[in-house]
Amino acid sequence: MQAILLVLDPRVLLTALLAGAFGMFVGAMPGLTATMAVALLVPMTFFMDPIPALAAIVSASTMAIFAGDIPGALLRIPGTPASAAYVEDSHRLAMKGKINLALGTNLLVSCIGGLVGVFVLIAAAPLLAEFALRFTSYEYFWLAALGLSCAIFIASADPLKAGIALLIGLALATVGLDPTTGVPRFTLGQVDLMAGVEFIPAMIGLFALAEVMRGVIRLNHRAPAPRMPQGEGALFKGVGGVIRRHPKNIVRGSLMGTLIGALPGAGADIAAWMAYAVSKRFSKTPERYGTGHVEGLVDASAANNAAVGGAWIPALVFGIPGDSVTAIVIGVLYMKGMNPGPTVFIQNPQLIYAVFMIFILTTLMMVPLGWVAVKVARQALRVPSRVLLPIVLAFCIVGAFAMTNSVFGIVVMLALGLLGWLLEENGFPVAPIILGLVLGGMFERMFMTSMIKSGGDLSAFFDRPIAAGLGICVLLLWGASLLGAWRGRGVRSETSETRRTT
Question: Per the UniProt record, which residue ranges are transmembrane (predicted)?
């Protein structure tokens, strides 16, 4: 009852509404992430009571994760990293005149996934946090390996080219200081590269800048720009049928997102990639993924929003951040004189229940705010390309600069934008590069840590039950992939031989 009174305070409700609108705006801007939305709100929380401060953070992060889907559908530019996994399907649906179906599905499924994450947070926070704490470097290594395997499964046409793109991403992830010795690698004498290739400028370059370059080339050649239908009518038309056809996908994506979100350091972007890959692996029509198929949107949209609630599990129960947003949350809690951890459930139980209620409230608030954001953002379609492209480029430059606070971020964006354009012109997907950048550092760090702990004994990777289970899954996954590729090659060879004989 104390928590209800705290949450229903008009100041708390107004704070959540304004922070949600701010999160929608930041998430819809290419390169401005949910973490940045929360970080920009932190100075304001100095002057707030604990409940309004937490309401602002929860609302902004929740809204920003969905808002990243809007530019992904409209412009093929993911607003946040959590939207990058399914940007191709989302944009192609819009190009087919199904923009309402794409964004309506994203919005409602995001709301459902977010609610699932919250209810799991409420019901099983201590249990899931205890499970997450059992993960050591061995388990994280296999988890990263499983995530990197997604690059092959999200490749719609050519697994070999997807593998090459993944290796490019992994190579970029090795730039910077060696995680075990601290020796600079591939920095070319540049101090800015000591911290590695920043992920956000790289994503902006590979997706947004490459798209701008294609638009400029079309204008210079006076080629007709691909006209995206306006998608008039109700936003949620046809979405009910999608939800009824794919209830298993929603449940699977939500639970996967919650579990991955509960793992410290994973977050919504990794949850989206893995949910999309699993969805394609078990789909009856995997060949349609990447061509404008709504099934992948259902899994990934549910997963990345469920991961938001899941990331709060280790943060509240043990004071361990689940992602960058909850790392900021822990700092805010300390600032307010409340130490996150098991004691907070005893000393400030009304605070915990208030957080749960705020999560439910802001997740439900996502539907009307998202509807308004989509209606407003869709006006961008009516802007001529000669005007729109410079505006998008300006936002790209701002986003790249903001993440590094230096011009070097813009240089990284320009270099990888050119690389992304060249690769896509030759049929190479850019999504595996992003995946390699996201997981490459974790993959190497956990491998080296595990090898040092085991004294170079590779069998130690299978000594622990959870690690052994994950390792077997990864090996079976790759074995099945190689077997499928070998059989497919045999069938193609037989077909070619038959044609030559004929």
Answer: 12-41, 53-75, 101-128, 140-157, 164-181, 193-212, 254-276, 311-335, 351-371, 391-416, 428-446, 466-486
Residues 6+ apart with CB under 8 A from 314: 129, 132, 133, 262, 264, 320, 321, 322, 326
User: For residues 69 and 80, what is the distance between their CA atoms, to the nearest angstrom?
Assistant: 8
Rg value, the chain, Cα = 23
The answer to whether position 500 is within a domain reads no
Local structure of 184: helix, strand or coil: strand
* DSSP letter (8 states) at residue 177: E
What's the angle, vertex CA 100, arms to CA 106 and CA 56, rounded to 5? Answer: 45
The answer to the question of residue 491 being in a domain is no
Number of structural domains the chain divides into:
1
In a domain, 295, yes or no: yes
Residue 381 pLDDT:
57
Mark out the alpha helices in 154-229 (DSSP H runs).
159-173, 199-203, 210-220
Handedness of CA 57, 60, 63, 69 (dihedral sign): negative
Q: Which residues contact 280 (CB under 8 A, 6 or more apart)?
A: 153, 154, 286, 289, 296
Residue 164: inside a domain: yes
Tokens of 1: 């009852």
Q: What element of type H or E holds 478?
A: helix 465-501
Q: Which amino acid is at 219?
A: L
| pTM score, whole prediction | 0.70
Q: Which residue has the higher pLDDT, 378 or 187?
A: 187
